[in-house]
Amino acid sequence: MERSALSQVTVTLGRMSTHREPSGAAIPRGPVDSSRVPRYAGPATFARLPRLDEVGTADVAVLGVPFDSGVSYRPGARFGGNAIREASRLLRPYNPAQDAAPFALAQVADAGDVVANPFDIGEAVRMVEAAAGELLDTGTRLMTLGGDHTIALPLLRAVARRHGPVALLHFDAHLDTWDTYFGAGYTHGTPFRRAVEEGILDTSALSHVGIRGPLYGPRDLDDDRKMGFGIITAADVLRRGVDEVAQQLRERIGGRPLYISVDIDVLDPAHAPGTGTPEAGGLTSRELLEILRGLADCRLVSADVVEVSPPYDHAEITAVAASHTAYELTTLMSRQVAGERAAR
Ligand SMILES: N=C(N)NCCCC(=O)O
Ligand SMILES: [Zn+2]
Ligand SMILES: [Zn+2]
């Protein structure tokens, strides 16, 4: 009795080893099959995918960054990555909106969490940069689950070291190009000003989408424009529609290597209550997902979803939206990987 119960656990947690096609190419190891093993059983990796240490290397690594020492208001984003993993148990392997099976096109795996010092932001930033750099050096793309928006800076540093200055598509209610808070330069309101100063962004292709809400003064916008950013406000998305917005973004990005950073507060608080600095009048989750799907031909090299704060969430509304956002981003990257492989 005991033994059979134990073997059941082994079946639940066990995964098949990597196998090969007759051609010799490794077939990606996909998620646990939720039609055979209840989706609420076992530890939560993103989309029930294998852990990176189970597959060795991955084309796309999902990386948690439990860090929220850079926030200016509500805390809790340190719990965001694991909440997104839990909510992602319901994702299925075929994405009809992009007509792609992301976990079959490429090896996607969960790389676990970065250890980031919660008491020293400078050291945490260095730790995130080092961990991201190590993964990128293996040739993987990163799908990072935050964490507060501070972490975009070290992620961009690591990505730029591999690809050179990248185009940035930034979904957020906030500019995050402010200078300092309490004299501190590394916060969740400042990552993109630091990134421009450090020369790690391609300033000919910087876009914010979803901007809205009160600012400190008109200079916020002047500074932002001088850094090279173009703004598509939340109201622009409403008036112009998702197709036109996606087309404008595609034209601006062109063939440049692209990094997408999604602050979940780009969504209206009705769609994402669980976040640190909510602003009324935001995008619907439908609008965000549709804009992302419209970027299929872009050269997406890495992405993040940040600012999910589970203590302020209800019924996993925010974590579900974030898990679907990460799913669309992962699908974009898997399709890129498959396209590059086919071109070789
Ligand atoms: N990155 C996020 N979520 N928020 C930045 C808000 C900075 C402020 O308190 O003015
Ligand atoms: Zn924000
Ligand atoms: Zn932000």
TrEMBL record:
Binding site for Mn(2+): H149, D172, H174, D176, D263, D265
SUPFAM superfamilies the UniProt entry points to: Arginase/deacetylase (SSF52768)
PROSITE patterns: ARGINASE_1, ARGINASE_2
Domain of life of the source: Bacteria
Pfam families: Arginase (PF00491)
Cofactor field: Mn(2+)
Entry keywords, A to Z: Hydrolase, Manganese, Metal-binding
Entry's cofactor comment: Binds 2 manganese ions per subunit.
Family listed: Belongs to the arginase family. Agmatinase subfamily.
The protein's name: Agmatinase
